[in-house]
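Revision sheet: structure tokens.
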Amino acid sequence: MSLTAARVEKYTPYLLALAAPASYFYAWHGMSHGFSADSLNKVAEVIVGLSGIIVGFLATATALLYALPDRNAVQFLKESHAIDMLRGYMLTDVFIGLATAVTAIVLVLIGPNTKLAVMRVVVGWWLYLPLLSILGFGRSMFVLSSFLRVVDRSAPNESEK
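Predicted:
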């Protein structure tokens, strides 16, 4: 993978996730937020639940990386620091998932009657973090599946034993 491809892979989720708050600020500039307490609570429940699932899955997948058998392909991935890159992606996505859940909880706690300027900033983050969490999760799963294909190809077939 070239240096440019690695940078694109690394920063794409962050840049794509900016589309949600940018659209929010552009479309609702000068308008009231119009959120009810009930709608905030319902959406926050979904986001906290989704964040919990993503965090749990990524934490488990990260632990599994440490348990990969030491075959030639795994040794190569370790020596080239590719597994370290993937672990970094996964751990970053775990922290983003936790930040997403915390932001959803803060949004519910401050409520819909908060000053409009404060509400816009919090909602902007609230739109950015879940999308970033989903995109980062997709990136991590894509890279993980690529690694596992390499490991699987290096495994001896049953007929070769």
